[in-house]
Amino acid sequence: MVFQLCDELIFPDPYLGEEDGLLAVGGDYSTERLLLAYSNGIFPWSAFRNEQKLWFCPLKRFVIFPNEIHISHSMRSLIRKQRYDVTINQDFEGVIRGCGEDRYEQPGAWLGDEIIEAYTRLHREGWAASIEVWDEDRLVGGLYGVLMGNCFIGESMFSRVPSASKLALIALAHWMEANGGTLIDCQLETPHLKSMGGRFISYEEYMSYLQPEDDDVKYDVENY
């Protein structure tokens, strides 16, 4: 069943959604609605700009546990060479706009101005963070997502050079471990993410990380 959202800040029970996780349509991207959605494991996604807003909550969650991140031999070699620099929250806008570029491996056409403005607002309020990959002073890759409970809910990533998004994900996993974070929500399964340690868990287990009883994680979003 797919529900039509109204102006009231409320979402339907995720267990009533479609098999693919589609739960509701409509609503807006206000900070309040986005935070309510993420706190219940719900996220927005649309295939194209200006398409009706779609809200998903899959009951099988594709995630990476930071301590299970798989680093291939080639990635270990790239890291040892120190070819690229990695930072956190140094260019959130550059990252989200990079994720909005149309790329051969993952079209980013759904990241329109409304989405960019909404997540930039979340970033300013401390709810969203970015990982940047630099080749000297050129931004060549990165990812961004939402911080919620013990989780980093990944929204999108991009690469302008080979393996830059993988490097960003590895850096994110290390940062999560250093800060007591326990879960990276990948939202959707892809071969790329599966090869790096992604696996499915139940919605119930996912929510135990998203809404922990003892939530004392304090992320250091200024340094990496």
Give the low-pLDDT segments.
103-109
Return Rg in Å: 17 Å
The average pLDDT is 89
Count of alpha and pi helical runs: 7
Beta-strand segment tally: 11
Portion of residues in beta strands equals: 15-25%
SSE string: EEHEEEHEHHEEEHEHEH
Q: Which structural category do the helix and sheet elements fall into?
A: alpha+beta
- Side by side, the strands of the main sheet go 6-7-8-9-10-5-11
| Largest sheet data | 7 strands, mixed
Helix content: 25-40%
Distance between the terminal alpha carbons, to the nearest Å?
43 Å
Approximate shape: globular
Question: How is this fold's topology laid out?
Answer:
Blueprint: E1 3-4, E2 22-25, H1 31-39, E3 43-44, E4 54-56, E5 60-64, H2 73-81, E6 85-88, H3 92-99, H4 113-124, E7 128-135, E8 138-148, E9 151-159, H5 164-178, E10 183-185, H6 191-194, E11 199-202, H7 203-210
Parallel strand pairs: 1-2, 9-10
Antiparallel strand pairs: 2-4, 3-4, 5-10, 5-11, 6-7, 7-8, 8-9
Q: Would you write up a description of this structure?
A:
With 224 residues, this protein is α+β, with helices and mostly antiparallel strands. The protein is built from seven helices and eleven strands. It has helices at 31-39, 73-81, 92-99, 113-124, 164-178, 191-194, 203-210; strands spanning 3-4, 22-25, 43-44, 54-56, 60-64, 85-88, 128-135, 138-148, 151-159, 183-185, 199-202. The strands form two sheets. It has a seven-stranded mixed β-sheet, sandwiched between helices. The protein has a four-stranded mixed β-sheet with strand order 1-2-4-3, covered by helices on one side. A hairpin with a 2-residue loop joins strand 7 and strand 8. Helix 3 (92-99) packs antiparallel against helix 4. Mean pLDDT is 89; it is low at 103-109.
